[in-house]
Amino acid sequence: MARILARRFGVTAYHYDYHDARGHNDRRVARRAEVGEPIAGPDPEEMWVRHSPPWMAQHALDDFSVRFEWALDDLRALVAGRPILAEGWGLRPDLVAPLLDSPRRMIVMVPTEEFRQRQLRDLPRARAHHYQVSDPEHGQRNRVERDRLIAADVEAAARRHSIRVLWVDGSRDAEQVATLVADHFAAYLATTTAG
After folding, report:
1. How far apart are CA 61 and CA 48, in angstroms?
2. How far, in Å, CA of 135 to CA of 128, rounded?
3. Can you tell which superkingdom this protein's organism belongs to (predicted)?
4. Three-state DSSP class for residue 155
């Protein structure tokens, strides 16, 4: 959605997942060293097989708050003459809402359970478990349930902060969903035009 809206309106898009996976890696390694965790990151067996999905979800949510500070550093460093549209699953309502002057400055997109199941059934990358673990099927079930719990958490957090939840069910293509998101942000996009 961010790419589509950047193209349509000339806004600057900040992709949390891209920066988190690449630009923040040095900070992630330094943090692990600081708190005494393995520099290479968590052991896949420990992460995906030995823990329960609720533990895994809470671990991810706790980690989001640390990584959010890194995203804020990125955003503060951006020089843009147009609005910045930041997107990504680590931008959680409980973290973002205190920084907003209006809940309309955020929208949360959540997949319906039916859409999640269809993705798992139809997309090879969605059903693949990319880590070498003793029980890949168990690890995949844990990951899927963890992601379901994280999605439920973001919905509940959005509602607590009066932030709109847009359910994604696969009935609209990306351009149509982008139009819904653009309509939501219309007041902020009204003064921008694509270059």
Report:
1. 16
2. 13
3. Bacteria
4. helix
pLDDT single digits (tens) 36-62: 888 877 888 988 999 999 999 999 999
Give which of 176, 154, 56, 168 is closest to 119, Cα–Cα: 168
Separation CA 77–CA 25 (nearest Å): 17
Q: How far apart are CA 181 and CA 56, in angstroms?
A: 30
DSSP 3-state of 108: strand
Find how far residue 94's CA is from the centre of its chain: 13
pLDDT at 179 over 50: yes
Domains and CATH numbers, the chain: 2-189 (3.40.50)
* φ/ψ (deg, to 5) at 170: 85, 0
Query: pLDDT-based confidence at 22, cuts 50/70/90?
Result: confident
Nearest Cα neighbor of 19 from 89, 74, 69 is 74
